[in-house]
Amino acid sequence: MPAARFRLPLAACPLLGLLLAGCGSPSSLVGANTISVLVEQRDQLDPQDRAISRQGLLKGIADFRSFNPNVQVKLSKVSSAQLDNRLQDLYARGLLPDLMILQTSTGGTSLLTFRQKNYIRAVTLTSNERREWRSKLLKPFEVANGYLALPIFAYPNLACFDTDKLARSPRSFDGLIKLGSSNVSMGMDADFRQLLWLLSGFGNHAFVEGKGTSRPGSVRAFLEWIRLASSQPGISFVEDKNILHNGLIKGNFAWIPCQSRSLPSLKKALGSRLGVGVMPTGPDVSPAPGLNLSIWAFGSQSSARQQYLAKDLALFGVNAIQQRNLALQMGTILPVNPYASLPSKAYTGLRVIEQSSTTEVPLSMASQERLARVAPELQKLLGQVISGYSLPAEVAPQFEELLKP
After folding, report:
1. Is residue 2 pLDDT above 50, yes or no?
2. In whole angstroms, what is the distance from residue 87 CA to residue 28 CA?
3. Which of 8, 24, 159, 321 fits a disulfide with 169 by CB distance 3.0 to 4.6 angstroms?
4. What is the mean pLDDT of residues 396-403?
């Protein structure tokens, strides 16, 4: 970022003022130097995990304003369930936010739909600006005239376990079955969208671009593993991730799949008993689950000045120093900046987060849209296998047809 954009503060401002919108009266929240930011809030997140993410965001905004004291940031939040309705209302009144912090994952918001509704616009980046992101994190958001979103934080998928009940996380899919057969309590997602890591571990990359052709028979192998797992006394498939999360805390499960963003609440509840590992691998392939991201999206109704400031804030938040500091402060994220070096050897959690991220890639916008379209039918077929209603061989052909691009 050009050095001229970093200005020394003209006057001290209380921290609370920095975090909310700057010094001054409420009337100072309007004008060319105000950026409005709407934050999508995932309701299923533990309040503590949500607070950690919010603190990281506020810290970045406060640091930005310390160099730009005349710029004010007006924050508001909305639940994922209400996001589309809120944007529709704001769009109709010409009041779309300048920036939106959205959560993109295997069940995330469709940016392509938002662009079609004219809620968001693409932003251009110079070659130097593009270097601020790991290329695999930025590429999924590329469109003809720039980028439809810019990653802020990355949250890899992990294995979380209770070390009082399990010495280490199983390293393979076979290891999961072996533990489940020995009555070790293990929780698994029943939601197909949360099982893409398992499908990819059998060599099927239906929604993960750049991984090559899927292996023949991978769908049936996946479904047969699901059927085998559902018959084990220690393995339970549940549809609500909160049940998995709370089940580990309450001692109902010894092992669950988790996201790095859930580590603060799990650590608080389990203390030194919390173990963290990489996801188990398939027969011959490391799984490639969709990497979960927090992203910046840019509102379509901003003035030229607000567009400039919005991009300035987004770029500031991903510079190497900011990303390193936030990763150390939060303990839950993979920096999106490839030059943000971390003392991983001294921090077990950060080391596992880095290891887990090596095989993970964010789903492209087109893949997310396709997944949202076919997931309901895939879920019905998966439920039939989990419940024992249908055999894997019976539903595999339909499953394969739905997975085709």
Report:
1. no
2. 24
3. 159
4. 95
The whole-angstrom separation of Cα 183 and Cα 201 is: 24
Burial class for 12, CB neighbours closer than 10 Å (0-12, 13-18, 19+): exposed
Beta bridge partners of 120: 299
* Residue from 158, 196, 172 nearest 284 by CA: 172
Residue 333: helix, strand or coil by DSSP? coil
347 Cα distance to chain centroid: 21
CA atoms within 13 A on the CB side of 28: 12
Whether pTM > 0.90 for this model: the answer is: no
Sequence-distant (6+) residues with CB within 8 A of 62 are 15, 18, 19
Strands (E) in 2-141, as ranges, are: 34-41, 72-79, 99-104, 120-121
The answer to whether residues 11 and 69 touch, using CB atoms and an 8 Å cutoff, is yes
Rounded to an integer, what distance in angstroms lies between the CA atom of residue 92 and that of residue 324?
A: 39
Residues in the chain, overall count: 405
Q: Are 62 and 18 in contact (CB under 8 A)?
A: yes
Residue-level pLDDT at 212: 60
pLDDT band of 54, cuts 50, 70, 90:
confident
Residues in contact with 31: Cβ distance below 8 Å, sequence separation at least 6, in sequence order: 72
Report how far residue 67's alpha carbon sits from residue 8's, in angstroms, rounded to the nearest whole number: 5
For residue 40, what are its two tokens?
């999508």
| Distance in angstroms (rounded) separating the CA atoms of residues 250 and 252 | 6
Give the residue with greater pLDDT, 13 vs 316.
Answer: 316
